[in-house]
Amino acid sequence: MNAGSDVGFDVIVVGSGAGGGVVAGELAQCGRKVLLLEAGPHLTSGHFRRWEAKATHDLYWPLRFAALPGGDAMIFLSGKCVGGSTTINTKVALRAHERDIAKWHPASGLTNDRGEPFALADLDEYYTRVENLLGVRERGDWENCVHTVQAGFRALGAELQPVHSYTDARCMSYGSCLQGCPTDGGKSTMNTYIAMALSRDLLEVRTGVRVERVLVADAPGGPRARGVAYVDAAGERHAARARFVVVAAGALNSPQLLLRSGLANPAIGRHVGLHPLRLVYGLFDDPQDAHRVYPITAHCMKFQTDDAGGFVIEASTIMDPIAFATTVRDANGPLWGPRLVETVRAYRHWNGLLAMVNDENNASVSIDNDGGEHIEVDLQPSERARLDGALRFSREALGAAGAKKVCWTGLISTHTQGGCRMGDDPLRSVVDRHCESHDVKGLFVGDASLLARTLSVNPSLTVMALATRLAERLELVLSGEVPGA
Ligand SMILES: Cc1cc2nc3c(=O)[nH]c(=O)nc-3n(C[C@H](O)[C@H](O)[C@H](O)COP(=O)(O)OP(=O)(O)OC[C@H]3O[C@@H](n4cnc5c(N)ncnc54)[C@H](O)[C@@H]3O)c2cc1C
Ligand code: SF4
């Protein structure tokens, strides 16, 4: 193992997505010596083309699946590149609902610095900082396909409203967000936090490296993180040392990394939330061209809270052709043969809604006997009722808008959360209110795995707000203003 010149970083950050990209960028701007380690490549807008198969290969974590009853499976999507999932996501930027955050204290005992139950207001200043930095704006620039489905929502007494997103005026509304934004109009941690720090030569980024474990050593106050062990693209093993380690490898990877590092807290990998979603498509007489718009300009929040139905519908969107053809189904199951051909031939005439439901955080991720990952999904009756309600409403809305036929996809998780949740109770959480491990000093978690309960909205803004809060805390400790590990 080669320790080389890697003795002496202030902070090592594992993973460069919504969480890690923000922590690394913020601390680098403070002048801290930060090493950012990322499993995927560093590709930028000049590389991005709307070539679905290539982007899926180059920018995504290989597809993962979890078994569902009846032989079905849930699909997990996430980014594997600098910027993580923010490089390939749809950029919707929403603050959590206060009821989402109100679930955190009962789930894990999480309190704020005054010892009160953690609340939405505790994130306000961090949301504002992220929104300003990313230039979050309202998207009222709806294309025809959105107006088409709005008529169906209104017929059912509901309403679509403009979303907020981290996209600036360079957004050409051509819909290739999931293959990386070619104009940089769509923001990611890659083209903001990380690019800004790199342009001032403040940050060291190593790509194509897989962190295998956090190095933990005995110390007078108990076990302490000293750095990480990683494998580079050539297969060589290295060690890098730092005063603090921030694990931000995403909700499915961070728990595995802690388990592989020997941490034994029983909450690791548990309470994972899926925010399960499906796309629901309606076939219209006129071309909809729902693939040639900024993918999500509108949403319906009428059913957002659990007691109102527990789901949010976004419009208008359709998967790109390969994903569309390989996931589309109806009440008889996945389409195949002539029916599939006929459906895909009419691609331009399909208009789509994205229906995502609140969940109960019952999934888990663990390591099996062969050392591989194992994801377990256990959908509860309340979650099934929300999924049925969201599908029913979406079908009705498309029908009321004039769709002649309706199809949909199976269940997908793109907003996976939890698994290393933050809380005051070490039996029900993995890290404390400052995101530091209950078991290993100097080891922090800084990504979507922190969320004690899944949000009812797209989570990345909240992940970035939590990461900003963590960076602020680490800077206070590094500058000696507050005592720390
Ligand atoms: C298709 C899609 C669309 C989405 N759309 C939206 C949206 O519109 N709005 C929204 O708010 N959210 C959206 N999300 C979700 C959002 O992007 C995620 O919630 C957020 O990025 C999670 O941040 P994270 O830091 O936890 O993980 P990620 O952003 O996934 O980053 C984790 C990074 O860690 C790296 N990594 C993992 N393991 C290792 C290892 N061992 N060593 C080194 N590096 C490692 C990964 O390669 C990855 O780059 C979307 C997600 C997807 C997949
Ligand atoms: S729709 Fe806008 S944000 Fe998305 S890839 Fe195109 S230019 Fe970028």
Describe, in plain words, how this protein is organized in 3D.
- This protein has 485 residues and is α+β, with helices and mostly antiparallel strands.
- The protein has helices at 18-29, 52-59, 98-102, 104-108, 124-134, 144-155, 190-199, 254-260, 321-327, 337-345, 381-400, 460-478; strands at residues 9-14, 34-38, 64-67, 73-76, 137-139, 161-165, 203-207, 210-217, 224-231, 237-247, 277-283, 298-300, 311-315, 329-330, 333-334, 350-357, 364-367, 373-376, 405-408, 412-413, 443-445.
- Strand 14 (329-330) and strand 15 (333-334) form a beta hairpin.
- The longest helix has 20 residues, at 381-400.
- The structure holds flavin-adenine dinucleotide and iron/sulfur cluster.
- Flavin-adenine dinucleotide is lined by residues 14-20, 37-40, 77-81, 84-86, 88-92, 178, 210-211, 248-251, 253, 257, 414-415, 447-448, 458-461, 463.
- Iron/sulfur cluster (SF4) binds at residues 91, 167, 171-177, 181, 183, 185-186, 294.
How is this fold's topology laid out?
Elements: E1 9-14, H1 18-29, E2 34-38, H2 52-59, E3 64-67, E4 73-76, H3 98-102, H4 104-108, H5 124-134, E5 137-139, H6 144-155, E6 161-165, H7 190-199, E7 203-207, E8 210-217, E9 224-231, E10 237-247, H8 254-260, E11 277-283, E12 298-300, E13 311-315, H9 321-327, E14 329-330, E15 333-334, H10 337-345, E16 350-357, E17 364-367, E18 373-376, H11 381-400, E19 405-408, E20 412-413, E21 443-445, H12 460-478
Parallel strand pairs: 1-2, 1-10, 2-7, 4-20, 10-21
Antiparallel strand pairs: 3-4, 5-6, 6-12, 8-9, 9-10, 11-16, 11-19, 12-13, 13-16, 14-15, 17-18
Helix pairs in contact: 1-7, 1-12, 5-12, 6-11
Bound molecules: flavin-adenine dinucleotide (FAD) and iron/sulfur cluster.
